[in-house]
């Protein structure tokens, strides 16, 4: 339907040296260009790559500030995962977002395990995507600054830094994806209040179906349980939603 | 053959089960005993034929040895044939032992052919029996007489005033003279023949003849007179006459074989030569009765059959009797009386007397026993005249025994074979039917309701046609499986494929929105966005089943209280659907079970969605949880239209929508492709349960029940 194009060169959409650079690795040119236009409108410098080889050769020369990666890239159905692994090898801090048409649980788990900061499906609107990108940049910036206490929420064993988007449990860091962080943030803002699925989705700037919310909650619980086996603060209220219990 | 197969297909047995058909086919082996019977009959008739032939050969041989030897056949004085046939001829039978002269005739081997019968006045009659033994002639007169009148004991036997019943005996003597004697008695007992001699002065006297004696006795219906006299006294002719009187001195009524007027004997005495038996004895065989008759058919002598070693012993028992009944079927005459047997023998003799050897079969003394007889004429020296007939009779018991034994063995064997064949056919048919029905059942259940196909069929290892059938079923099912697999994943694949262009459309629209556009353009953009939203909803609905399957695959079981879950969930529905009322019935005690609570909630969501869709505003949807030790059941009932009739089984299948969907905004926003109930079923099955649907009593609505195993 869409003829494969032969774009091998790095495509620069804006050229301001001071702007933050976002790399989009996406084999579908129309999507890539649309995303690029949206990011450019927000004032980011955008570079698009159609496949892993082009992206890696460019990244080797210069790392972007953030990478948005599709999983299947031209002839590599799992090329995005491979790229993510290589990129993580280059930089531990670089925010990576998977943006893909594949929405299976397995793909999400694999992507997040490879060190991606978020796993998004292409259902997501551009506005939501941009909100996430902004949030991730904010986190990166916050990590570079000393902690400001007012941004920190403490709920018993939980310490949540909304600026850095980091979570600690009993002083131990719990590594959450952006979506997971926002869900935890929404739940802990008003402990004991039931948050329904819609509220959680809104908080996480994401549109998800019931099962995906459920698996996010499950993942969150599991991540906390890694640092504390007895973790049981996220309660399911059947038919309603979830709540944080201290 | 093809007609036979056609008959099997359409004929009267086409409606039978396979087992019955095969059984009927096996019964055709019953033709074996029938064929065996036919064979046995054939064998029997061949045996009989050969027996008859050999008997005939022996008979002809003996007849040949007697050819022209008239002197060996008849005693010298009696030369038959010259005067033709005469009803007054007396042919004595040669007896093997001398009869006791006592007025009783039991020991006489009387033969119908040799009895001379003479009718008297009224019902009176005379039967004259004659026999010889060695040099003696014996006569027995069996007289039917209602009144036996004795002579007066005081008077002489010649006093005509007082004489009673009288028997005259007259014969030629060797010198050509006539001898006349009479027997008279004053009572039962020994008598002597008396000759009337004329003495001087014309006085008559009755002189006793010492050589001619007898015994006169009363019998049941008259009297019997047994007489013995030396054969040497008698010439060619001999006869008896009875003077019957109603009282002493009454006028006589005479009847007998003598001329009444002059007491002359006209009937011949045709007796066998004394050497005949000696000659015949050399031909005697065990079991063979030998009879020589004169050309008239009267028996001259008879050599009784010496006892047969190993006489016909009938096979006993139920089966042999059945076989005999089945076999003989009238082919062999039944037992007959002595008289009838003798008549048959006489007929045979008479046939042979016409000049040709004959054989015949007639019934023997016992039931089903048969006598084979052969008769051959004895010719005179010139070969032109038949001077006698020789007849051999033999019981056919020997070959009857043989036949019976062979048949019984044959029939037992075929019966056993038939039983075995029927049994084998029954077993085979049973096994075949079992295999076929197993295959049938497996192929019926191979196609699961959700379209998944199990390819493992029984019999696929067998090398016969059923194995072939099973294998072709398997390959068919395999192809079906691939096809249904393709169909099942089609929606998901399609959704995935469409998602990319949809993303292009959506992201383009979103970019367009941020450009400065006219108000008109904004309206169109909004419409295009709305359209792409709906497309997106459709896509996620299409992939919903796959997502649920995935979610189920990743589900972990945990213990939870189903009662609390149902109660909480129903409470939440109250706010989610303000236009419906919800009635909830949950046991007071906790219903602990192991499972995935999120899935149960999702399942209930689908059921309640469904109930809400098909009920009117303000309707009450009732949700009931019941549980026993092993199972829990959640049922959701709503008033509304009843289920369509075919829905019961198909309702829970994927992509099946029965009830006409109204094009409501709600449906437009949340399309479900009939996946809701399919998801319900998937979740129920994950919990070791099942889902079913039914109409409420009076078709006032529908009830959906899900059964879960509590584990």
Biggest sheet of chain A: strands side by side, in what order? Answer: 1-3-2-4-5-6
- The share of residues in extended strands of chain A comes to 15-25%
Q: Whole-number radius of gyration of chain B?
A: 58 Å
Overall residue-averaged pLDDT value of chain A: 83
The structural domain count of chain B equals 4
CATH topology of the largest domain in chain A: Rossmann fold
**Number of domain units of chain A:** 2
Description:
The complex is a heterodimer of chains A (246) and B (711). Chain A has helices at 29-41, 52-61, 79-90, 105-113, 126-144, 178-189, 197-203, 210-227, and strands at residues 11-12, 21-25, 45-49, 66-69, 96-100, 118-121, 152-155, 158-161, 166-169, 172-174, 234-237, 241-244. Chain A is an alpha/beta fold and 246 residues long. Chain A has two domains: 11-142, Rossmann fold, CATH 3.40.50.2300; 147-244, Winged helix-like DNA-binding domain superfamily/Winged helix DNA-binding domain (Arc Repressor Mutant, subunit A, Orthogonal Bundle). In chain A, strand 8 (158-161) and strand 9 form a beta hairpin. Chain A is globular. Residues 1-9 of chain A have low confidence and may be disordered. Chain B is an alpha+beta fold and 711 residues long. In chain B, strand 15 and strand 16 (386-395) form a beta hairpin. In chain B, helix 2 (18-27) runs antiparallel to helix 8 (397-446). Chain B starts with a helix and ends with a strand. The A-B interface holds A 1, 28, 30-31, 34-35, 37-38, 41, 101-106, 122-123, 125-127, 209-211, 214-215, 236-240 and B 496, 499-504, 506-508, 510-511, 514, 536, 540, 543-544, 547-548, 550-551, 554, 564-565, 568-573, 576, 597-598, 601-602, 604-605.
């Amino acid at each position: 339907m869409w003829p494969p194009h032969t774009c091998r060169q790095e495509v620069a959409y804006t050229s301001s040296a001071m702007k933050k650079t976002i790399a989009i690795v996406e084999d579908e040119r129309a999507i890539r260009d649309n995303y690029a236009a949206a990011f450019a409108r927000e004032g980011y410098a955008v570079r698009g790559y159609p496949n892993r080889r082009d992206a890696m050769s460019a990244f080797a020369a210069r790392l972007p500030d953030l990478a948005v990666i599709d999983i299947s890239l031209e002839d590599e159905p799992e090329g995005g995962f491979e790229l993510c692994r290589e990129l993580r090898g280059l930089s531990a801090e670089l925010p990576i977002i998977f943006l893909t048409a594949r929405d299976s649980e397995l793909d999400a788990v694999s992507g997040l395990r490879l060190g991606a900061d978020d796993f998004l499906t292409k259902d997501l609107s551009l506005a939501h995507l941009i909100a996430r990108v902004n949030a991730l940049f904010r986190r990166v910036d916050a990590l570079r600054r000393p902690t400001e206490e007012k941004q920190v929420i403490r709920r018993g064993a939980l310490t949540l830094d909304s600026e850095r988007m980091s979570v600690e449990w009993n002083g131990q860091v719990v590594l959450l994806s952006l979506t997971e962080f926002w869900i935890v943030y929404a739940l802990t803002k008003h402990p004991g209040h039931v948050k329904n699925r819609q509220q959680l989705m809104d908080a996480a700037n994401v549109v998800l179906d019931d099962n995906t919310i459920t698996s996010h909650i499950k993942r969150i619980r599991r991540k906390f349980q890694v640092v504390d086996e007895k973790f049981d603060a996220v309660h399911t209220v059947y038919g309603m939603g979830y709540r944080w219990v201290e | 053959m093809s007609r036979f197969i056609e008959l099997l297909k359409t004929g009267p047995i086409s409606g039978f089960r396979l087992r019955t058909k095969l059984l009927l086919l096996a019964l055709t082996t019953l033709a074996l005993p029938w064929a065996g019977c036919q064979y046995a009959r054939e064998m029997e008739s061949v045996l009989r034929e050969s027996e008859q032939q050999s008997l005939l050969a022996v008979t002809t041989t003996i007849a040949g040895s007697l050819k022209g030897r008239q002197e060996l056949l008849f005693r010298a004085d009696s030369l038959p044939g010259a005067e033709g046939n005469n009803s007054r001829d007396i042919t004595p039978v040669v007896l093997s032992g001398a009869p006791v002269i006592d007025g009783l005739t039991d020991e006489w081997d009387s033969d119908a052919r040799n009895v001379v019968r003479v009718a008297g006045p009224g019902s009176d009659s005379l039967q004259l029996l004659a026999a010889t033994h060695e040099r003696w002639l014996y006569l027995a007169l069996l007289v039917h007489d209602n009144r036996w009148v004795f002579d007066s004991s005081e008077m002489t036997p010649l006093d005509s005033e007082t004489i009673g019943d009288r028997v005259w005996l007259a014969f030629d003597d060797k010198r050509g003279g006539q001898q006349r004697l009479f027997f008279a008695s004053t009572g039962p007992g020994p008598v002597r023949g008396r000759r009337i001699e004329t003495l001087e002065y014309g006085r008559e006297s009755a002189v006793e003849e010492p050589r001619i004696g007898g015994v006169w006795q009363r019998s049941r219906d008259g009297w019997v007179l047994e007489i013995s006299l030396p054969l040497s006294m008698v010439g060619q002719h001999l006869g008896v006459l009875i003077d019957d009187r109603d009282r002493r001195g009454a006028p006589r009524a005479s009847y007998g074989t003598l001329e009444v007027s002059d007491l002359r004997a006209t009937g011949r005495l045709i007796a066998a030569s004394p050497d005949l038996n000696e000659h015949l004895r050399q031909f005697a065989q065990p079991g063979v009765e030998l009879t020589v008759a004169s050309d008239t058919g009267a028996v001259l002598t008879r050599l009784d059959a010496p006892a047969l070693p190993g006489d016909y012993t009938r096979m006993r028992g139920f089966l042999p009797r059945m076989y005999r009944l089945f076999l003989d079927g009238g082919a062999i005459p039944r037992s007959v009386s002595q008289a009838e047997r003798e008549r048959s023998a006489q007929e045979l003799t008479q046939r042979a007397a016409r000049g040709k050897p004959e054989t015949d079969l007639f019934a023997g003394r016992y039931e089903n026993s048969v006598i084979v007889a052969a008769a051959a004429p004895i010719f005179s020296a010139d070969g032109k005249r038949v001077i006698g007939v020789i007849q051999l009779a033999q019981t056919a018991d020997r070959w009857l025994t043989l036949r019976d034994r062979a048949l019984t063995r044959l029939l037992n064997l075929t019966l056993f074979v038939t039983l075995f064949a029927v049994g084998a056919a029954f077993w085979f048919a049973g096994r075949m039917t079992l295999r076929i029905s197993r295959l049938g059942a497996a192929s019926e259940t191979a196609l699961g309701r959700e379209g998944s196909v199990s390819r493992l069929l029984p019999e696929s290892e067998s090398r016969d046609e059923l194995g072939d059938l099973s294998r072709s079923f398997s390959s068919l099912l395999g192809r079906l499986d691939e096809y249904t697999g393709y169909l099942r994943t089609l929606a998901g694949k399609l959704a995935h494929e469409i998602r990319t262009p949809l993303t292009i459309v959506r992201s383009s629209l979103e970019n367009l929105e941020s450009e400065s556009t006219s108000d008109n353009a904004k309206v169109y953009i909004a419409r295009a966005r709305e359209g792409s939203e709906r497309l997106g909803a459709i896509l996620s609905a299409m992939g919903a089943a796959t997502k649920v399957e995935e979610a189920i695959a990743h589900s972990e079981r945990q213990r939870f209280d189903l009662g609390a879950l149902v109660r909480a969930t129903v409470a939440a529905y109250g706010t989610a659907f303000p236009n419906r009322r919800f009635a909830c019935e949950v046991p007071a005690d906790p219903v602990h079970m192991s499972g995935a609570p999120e899935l149960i909630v999702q399942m209930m969501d689908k059921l309640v969605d469904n109930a809400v869709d098909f009920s009117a505003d303000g309707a009450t949807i009732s949700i009931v949880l019941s549980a026993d030790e092993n199972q829990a059941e959640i049922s959701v009932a709503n008033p509304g239209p009843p289920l369509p009739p075919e829905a019961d089984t198909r309702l829970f299948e994927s992509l099946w929508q029965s009830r006409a969907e109204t094009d409501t905004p709600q449906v437009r926003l949340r399309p479900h492709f009939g996946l809701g109930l399919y998801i319900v079923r998937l979740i129920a099955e994950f919990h070791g349960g099942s889902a079913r649907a039914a109409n409420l009593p009076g078709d006032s609505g529908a009830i959906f029940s899900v059964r879960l195993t509590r584990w």
